Amino acid sequence: MFIIKFGGSLSKNPETIRKIFEILEEISLNYKFIVLPGGGEFADLVLKYYETHNLNLKISNDACILAMDIVGLMLSNFTKIKTGYELKSNTIFLPSRLLIDSNLEISNEITSDSIAVYIADKVDAETVILLKSVDGIFVEGKTQ
């Protein structure tokens, strides 16, 4: 079993989502994994409101976790892989029910990347894969 953290920033491009999930559907025939969506722009908006509207930290945290659910539901539009609130293999995991009332530290420093590691520990996953958008690839010290 492994955890695939789908960076929220990747959800901006429908073609990217389709291509990634085509690969994941193929991989699902031979491997067990759980896709954990990041909160992307939805979580970014919550954090902006946290600052501008002086939101309570717990409310901000919970809203960011719900943002992960929103991105997960959106991702399900592009794949046959089902969403779910339980930690089952070959699903897009919607983390709100597990995390909102958990004993996880309440902090805006907790990211969906660190939640992916937390989930991996809960299911004894051997690997965490972080899928993220990047500004370029470094080859021999130069961006390409």
State the helicity in percent bands.
40-55%
Number of helices: 5
Strand order of the largest sheet: 3-4-2-1-5
What characteristic shape results from the CA principal axes?
A: globular
Q: Biggest sheet: strands, sense, closure?
A: 5 strands, parallel
What is the count of β-strands? 7
Q: Architecture in CATH?
A: 3-Layer(aba) Sandwich
| Beginning-to-end CA distance, first to last residue | 33 Å
> Whole-number radius of gyration?
16 Å
Query: What's the name of the CATH homologous superfamily?
Result: Acetylglutamate kinase-like
Order of helices and strands: EHEHHEEHHEEE
Q: From the helix content, strand content and strand pairing, which structural class follows?
A: alpha/beta
Low-confidence stretches: none
Whole-number count of domains = 1
Strand content: 15-25%
CATH class descriptor: Alpha Beta
Q: What is the average per-residue confidence, as pLDDT, rounded to a whole number? A: 93
Find the CATH topology: Carbamate kinase
Describe what is shown at a glance:
This protein is of the alpha/beta class and 144 residues long. The protein has five helices and seven strands. It has one domain: Acetylglutamate kinase-like (Carbamate kinase).
Notes on the structure:
By secondary structure, this protein is α/β, with parallel strands linked by helices. The chain has a single domain, classed as 3-Layer(aba) Sandwich (Carbamate kinase), CATH 3.40.1160. The protein has five helices and seven strands. The protein has helices spanning 14-27, 40-52, 57-75, 96-99, 112-123, and strands at 2-6, 33-37, 83-84, 91-93, 127-131, 138-139, 142-143. The protein has a five-stranded parallel beta sheet with strand order 3-4-2-1-5. A two-stranded antiparallel sheet has the order 6-7. Helix 1 links the parallel strand 1 (2-6) and strand 2 (33-37). Helix 2 runs antiparallel to helix 3. The radius of gyration is 16 Å and the shape is globular. The N and C termini lie far apart (33 Å). The mean pLDDT is 93.
